[in-house]
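User: I'm new to structure prediction. If I give you an amino acid sequence, what do you actually give back? Let's try with this one:
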Amino acid sequence: MKYLIVDDHPLTRQVVIDSLRESGAEFAEAASGEEAIAYCEQHSPDWIIMDVRMPGRGGLFASRQITSSRPGARIVVISQYDDDLMANEARAVGAMDFVSKDRIAELPSILKELHTSNS
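Assistant: Good question. You get back a string of structure tokens that encode the predicted 3D arrangement of the chain. For your 119 residues, that looks like this:
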């Protein structure tokens, strides 16, 4: 499984990686929406875990760009804010789900459920 972890805070990226670590998993990291878009132009990660708020182009803009060029891209937007409006915006730009950073430890089960329900 190949993951792209997008967050402007290196510690948060590491926490996400630690929560998803499994045998054979590969991780790439990006610190901005622009870096995520550029990475996805060259590579095809299985999952993109995308922060909402970052300097420059944020996660919602990047998610929209990625899903428009790669229909079917599997993006989960994360945020420190558990906000229904933001969750709806994330889904509107093509994210499969919106997860509060308080629930990062649940990411493996959330991704498994999303994969199962969309297969």
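You can read the tokens as a compact description of the fold. Here is one thing that stands out. The mean pLDDT is 93.
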